[in-house]
Request: fold
Amino acid sequence: MTADGDVPAELSKLHKSYELLGELSRDDMVTVYLARDRLSGKEVAIKVLRALGARGREALAHYASDARLLTALEHPNIVTVYTVKWLSEDVVAVVTERVRGPSLRQVLDVAGTLPVARATDVLRGLGRALAWAHSSQIMHRDVRPENVIFEDGTGRVVLSDFGLARRIEAAPGADQPAADAYRAPELADGRYPDRRTDVYSLGI
Reply:
């Protein structure tokens, strides 16, 4: 919400369906809002992505197209994507399930390591999530501890943030992620990624 409690103009097209509760994070290109579905009463996260220039609009169009595939990707170990909506020619909103709980990164920062049994459960859950996504021809492309959530109360392990997800057959795009400790080498040098890209990150 804005300082005076008004709904941001960019969310006006979603106001009838979702009650805005607050802002979770923000940078130059992405803002994430907390909201409530007016019909179901469930909390949701609304990720608003903005294009910067013509090249950015092209990348955003590819992302919106691929993100729509995620609405059919229902799995207990994957954050559910409810809808994808263009708010303007430069802005797309992705509405997802809101999962409350710490990330694997936060847990590891405190605990250092996980017990073997828990680590095995986590790997199995993430492996099932990736197998399901891959069977639907979707790559995550950004599997790392920050994108793994342990749900409060249930302990369910959930793979989140499919912001870099793409169809498996798609060519590398302008938004190719920069290399980090969890990303496969082909993502750093422009080669075509495939299912093994996500498996590599899971193994790391």
